[in-house]
Structure formats: C-alpha cells, structure tokens
Write a structure and sequence with these properties.
single chain, alpha/beta, Hypothetical Protein, Haloacid Dehalogenase-like Hydrolase, Chain: A, domain 2, four-stranded antiparallel sheet, about 35% helix, globular
Length: about 270
C-alpha cells in the first residue's frame, strides 16, 4: 500500500521527531520488519518526522526494513546508518565520516590483530565466520562470528548471558586500548561495537541540530528515542539517557507499537 506524507514543515507536530533503534525495537533481532510495524510508522509519519538509528550499514537496514521494491530511505524521513555516520534525509545523503580516517591504519591494524588473537584463544561451544566486520564508523566484533544462523545466535546469546564472554572481552580491550579514546558497546545477540568516543547513537543528533541552522530548517525541540538496549553498556544507552532526547525503553517490536499507540493516540 502506497502512502503519501505531508512535507516535514507541514506535519501537525513539526518540531517533533521519533527515532528508533532497529534490532529488537522495529524488528526482531536481525529479522525483517512486520507489516503491522510499517503501518503504524506510516500513520505516525502523518503527524511528525520519523527516523531510524542503527549501528549496521545501510545494506543491512535495507534487508531488514525495506523490500526489493521499496528503498528504506523512502520509508523514513531520516535514515541514520552506522549511528549517523552515513545519513539520509528525504532520500538524499548528508555529510559522512569514517573510523579509519580518525584512528589511522597502524592503530587500526593493532586493534584488529588483538581481537583476532583473543577470539582464536576463546573456548566457546561453536565458532562460525566473520569475527571482525569493518564498517564505515566502527568495527563490529563477534566471538561466535556473524555468519551464525538464527538458532546459533539464540543459543550463543543464552551462553553469553551466563558466561559474560563479551563483557570479559571488552574489559581486556579497555585495558589494552584505553589510551585511544574508544567506546566499546555491547549490542544485539552476538557482538559488540568499537568506535571513537561520542560516535555512539548520539552522533546522529548533530544532523538534527544542523537542520535547525539551515534556511527554512526545522528545529526539532522534541526528540523521542525508542530502543531495547537502554541499560548502561547497551548500545542504546547513550542516546536513551541523553538530555536532548526523551527515552523510551521497549522490550520488542510489539511493545514499540503499543507505546506509539499510547503516546500518539494511533488506536
């Protein structure tokens, strides 16, 4: 079903934007968005601006939120891939940044080598492949490997909760690379992200602040954020607790829908 939306400046709540984490908030972890979620987002978009902010690259977010016929950048007013280091507004790309430029090749190589050595020595039930994934704004590190199946991810998540594999790994990285000004953020079921301090999900807020400075731009005075990893150390924590946002902690996509219905009277 095709929807049409008022221009951003003509929305009833034009100074309000709702930002959403992807995994565990808009979709089940690593799975695709439901028709019910897309419908509620389309109804919300009649009232205010909407955007997603996720650590993955745009290709993964297209897989989860878009379809073969529908580009994800048309489903949201703002798309903040890699925490906003790759960003789109109304389908047009905004200025981007990169981790490799920031850290330099030598230190980057040292960090990756340390991670691979550590994983090689880890005794965990199974390992698959893609243990370190390079992204524009970070590296994503997974002790089991990102090639794990959905069932293997579920099993690993339980194992990790009992054995704190990722927590211990992050502790070692903090000891070894504390001088570099990096943030280590555990998120999703099987991995954690490594990125420069301040390059967490709050990075996307500077794009919204820049909107207010543009000629005829909108000042987003009310920024709602919905996420499931809002605990300290979770990858939604920084933006959830930021004074510029109103944070909403959700337990999954159904809870997100319920919150939106309640907040914006979308029954």
């Amino acid at each position: 079903m095709a929807y049409s939306f008022p221009p951003l400046e003509d929305r009833p709540l034009k100074n309000t934007i709702c930002l959403f984490d992807v995994d565990g908030t808009l979709t089940p972890a690593r799975l695709t968005v439901s028709p019910d979620m897309l419908q509620i987002l389309a109804r919300l978009r009649q009232q205010c601006a909407i955007g997603f902010v996720g650590g993955s690259d745009l290709v993964k977010q297209q897989e989860q939120l878009g379809t073969a016929d529908v580009n994800v950048t048309t489903l949201f007013d703002f798309c903040f891939a890699e925490n906003g280091l790759t960003a789109y507004k109304n389908g047009a790309q905004l200025p981007s940044n990169s981790f490799i430029k920031w850290i330099g090749e030598d230190q980057f190589k040292e960090l990756v080598n340390f991670c691979l050595h550590y994983i090689a020595d880890l005794d965990i039930p199974i390992k698959r492949g893609t243990f370190v994934e390079f992204r524009n704004g970070m590296i994503n590190v997974s002790p089991i490997g990102r090639n794990a199946s959905t069932q293997e991810r579920n099993d690993y998540e339980k194992y990790d909760k009992e054995n704190h594999v990722r927590e211990k790994f992050v502790e070692k990285l903090r000891e070894r690379f504390g001088h570099l000004g990096l943030t280590f953020s555990i998120g999703g079921q099987i991995s954690f992200d490594v990125f420069p301090a301040g390059w967490d999900k709050t990075y996307c807020l500077q794009h919204l602040e820049n909107e207010a400075k543009k000629t005829g731009g909108i000042n987003y005075t009310t920024i709602h954020f919905f996420g499931d990893k809002t605990f300290k150390g979770g990858n939604d924590y920084e933006i959830y607790s930021d004074p510029r946002t109103i944070g909403h902690s959700v337990t999954g996509p159904e809870d997100t829908i319920a919150e939106l219905k309640k907040l914006f009277k979308l029954e």
